[in-house]
Design goal:
- The termini are far apart.
- By secondary structure, the chain is of the alpha+beta class.
- α1 crosses α10 and α17 packs across α23.
- Strands 5-4-8-7 form a four-stranded mixed β-sheet. A four-stranded antiparallel β-sheet has the order 12-13-14-15. Strands 9-10-11 form a three-stranded antiparallel β-sheet.
- The longest helix is centred in the C-terminal third of the chain and has 30 residues.
- A hairpin with a 4-residue loop joins β4 and β5.
- It folds into four domains: 94 residues, no CATH class; 192 residues, no CATH class; 180 residues, no CATH class; 123 residues, no CATH class.
Length: 631
């Protein structure tokens, strides 16, 4: 129950944001819902005068359809032919008293009668808002469809019945295809109607954005709830509920986190007589916790193939996300140009300063929540992972991950320019490095979930992920150059986490696999310099890399033989690299120069040696350029 409690506390800490519309980067809107409210896409907006007369109506534009509406427990969970009206805004079959008159059939009772009775109870209560009374006075007349037809919002066929599906034969009556048929996919009779009130005296707040209307229904509905019982979450005596929210991940999401409607199966039978004996949760806590969860998912959740990854603090908008890479979290502080070389001490100092910024910019005593959700079926949503941690402990674990899994990466871009940064890769990028860019979302979300305990709990990285990224990095001919470079640096980060090697080249390292990696890097750089800009093909070192990792001694002979023409082409310029091959090769003992397959460490030697050679070349070219300018 702890995750429910912390979501409930999050709602309580953010009550000032209730009803305030926020926007995502794609322009879609969301808000922290009041209790007893939900969101629904409306198709028609009907405006009523304060005296309860029809004023006007419009077909709602796609960008403005999301509507905050009051709801009861029954209407929030209605399905199929079950009659359970929303208290105010609803479909035509509920809100139009003349629905049957215009040829539409209803099953299992009269939806309008249930709707108008519920609205009448609200309008007659002491908590009613004047806008609700205006809407009730109009709707009870039972002429909604008639008015919408006159307003040319809805359209009838030659027999004076609602047209279910638009056909070219209707053009003789109505001309071009009306907007309502493009707005409502299943026919105009399924349109959802929202109501508003117009005043000639003042500019009124729209009904679905009016906080006074929210509070009017909340207060009214609380009186309709069941008797008090002990809430397992708060320990207080409050009105309880057995019906809990859906639409958690998005508006079409039917999966629930808490449900016990299967009285004929094995949900709770044999242990309890009634479902509430399993977990009795109050209506107030259920509403607030679920609404907080929906809001957090929209605001800062990551959703991969319906799996939700969420990290939050109850009263802070900015929280370090364990799934992001170091550059996303700490920016230019860890960019290569801001680090003096690649010494572990300098990187650690900059990383600690970045983490300290998070520690002391907000409440240091706050707690961090980490939640992973996914649905096993269309009706059930499960908590796959949940942790509630002290902020200091969480930030220390994040620092440990970004330090131990750090490597030099060159695949990030800002403003079109490539950025080199030192740090840990994002978990999503690790999944792509291990299994390829065309891997299914199922594998990506599974990999991200499996890496969470490595970051939060300090566990070892799953061996199959490390091995798979190593194998892909050892096969560069199977992918484009940019993809291979990205895969290589991510593989090195994962291997470095296990082996503890620095990014900078270790000249004193005598490990066989590390030395073989250095030899391969020198051969690659030598051939690349000989080819220059004339040929953009892969070098022999790269082409034979996969075979080299499996049979290093035999493949090295092939690579070294292929180097001779390029050494001859470079002449004296190849002297340093040729002597470096001899120097590294001399460190290999006869017993180590075998065809025993190489471990992941050879990639570290390859990357570090190649990077040092490129760095020396850049410094040399820069020095030559400076001298020429001075002359």
């Amino acid at each position: 129950m702890s995750w429910l409690l912390h979501l409930y506390e999050t709602y309580e800490a953010n009550e000032d944001k209730i009803g305030k519309v926020e926007k995502k980067h794609n322009g879609s809107e969301y808000t922290l819902l009041p209790i007893s409210h939900t969101t629904q896409n409306a198709h028609i907006e009907v405006t009523i005068t304060e005296s309860g007369e029809f004023h006007s109506a419009t077909v709602i534009d796609k960008s403005d359809r999301s509507t905050l509406i009051p709801t009861t427990e029954a209407s929030a969970n209605r399905a199929g032919a079950k009659i359970a009206p929303y208290p105010l805004h609803d479909k035509l079959s509920y809100t139009a008293g003349d629905y049957v008159k215009y040829g539409r059939q209803v099953k299992n009772g009269d939806p309008f009668s249930s709707y108008i009775q519920q609205l009448e109870d609200w309008a007659a209560s002491s908590y009613v808002h004047p806008k609700i009374q205006s809407i009730y006075q109009y709707v009870k007349k039972g002429c909604l469809i008639e008015d919408l037809v006159k307003e040319k919002i809805l359209f009838l066929d030659a027999e004076e019945k609602l047209i279910s599906k638009w056909d070219t034969k209707h053009e003789a009556l109505h001309g071009e295809k009306p907007a309502i048929f493009s707005t409502v996919g299943s026919g105009q009779e399924s349109a959802f109607v929202r109501f508003n009130v117009y005043s000639t005296k003042e500019l009124l707040t729209k009904v679905w954005k009016d906080h006074e209307v929210y509070n009017s229904f909340i207060t009214f509905y609380k009186d309709q709830l069941s008797d008090n019982d002990i809430c397992y979450v708060t320990g207080q005596e409050l009105p309880s509920t057995e019906r809990h929210s859906n639409k958690i991940r998005h508006a079409a999401d039917k999966a629930k986190l808490i449900s016990a409607n299967d009285t004929s199966g094995f949900t709770f039978r044999g242990r309890f007589q009634k479902s509430y004996q399993v977990a009795n949760i109050s209506y107030d806590v259920s509403q607030k916790a679920h609404n907080a969860l929906k809001w957090l998912i929209h605001r800062q959740g990551k959703v991969i193939d319906e799996r939700v990854f969420l990290v939050w603090e109850k009263d802070q908008e900015k929280t370090i996300d364990p799934h992001e890479d170091s550059f996303d979290l700490f920016g230019s502080r860890l960019a290569k140009e801001n680090l003096h070389g690649f010494a572990n001490e300098e990187f650690a100092r900059q990383l600690s300063k970045a983490i300290d910024g998070y520690k002391y910019s907000f409440d240091y005593n706050a707690n961090v929540n980490i939640l992973v959700l996914d649905s096993a079926t269309t009706g059930r949503l499960a908590v796959l992972y949940y942790r509630h941690l002290e902020k200091e402990f969480y930030l220390n674990r994040m620092e440990a991950w970004h330090r131990s899994c750090s490597w030099l990466h060159t695949y990030r871009k800002t403003d079109g320019d490539r950025v080199e940064f030192l740090g840990a890769p994002a978990t999503k990028d690790i999944a792509f490095a291990a299994y390829g860019p065309r891997v299914s979302d199922e594998v990506v979300k599974g990999t991200m979930e499996r890496l969470l305990p490595c970051i939060i709990d300090g566990r070892k990285t799953p061996r199959d992920i490390v091995k798979s990224s190593f194998q892909r990095a050892s096969n560069p001919v199977s992918m484009e150059k940019w993809e291979w470079e990205k895969t290589l640096s991510i593989a090195c980060a994962l291997i470095k986490k296990e082996e503890g090697y620095p990014v900078a080249l270790d000249h004193e390292e005598q490990d066989r696999d590390y030395l073989f990696g250095r030899l391969l890097a020198i051969a690659d750089v030598l051939e690349r310099r000989a080819l220059g800009n004339e040929e953009n093909r892969a070098t022999n070192a790269i082409r034979y890399m996969s075979a080299y990792s499996k049979h290093p001694a035999r493949t090295w002979k092939t690579i070294q033989d292929s180097l001779q023409p390029y050494q001859a082409r470079l002449g004296a310029k190849a002297g340093y690299l040729s002597s470096l091959i001899d120097e590294v090769g001399s460190k290999l003992s006869i017993e180590d120069f075998t065809n025993r397959s190489l471990s992941e460490r050879y990639l570290l030697g390859f990357y570090s040696q190649r990077h040092e050679l490129y760095q020396k070349k850049e410094k040399k070219d820069s020095a030559v350029s400076t001298n020429q300018e001075e002359e």
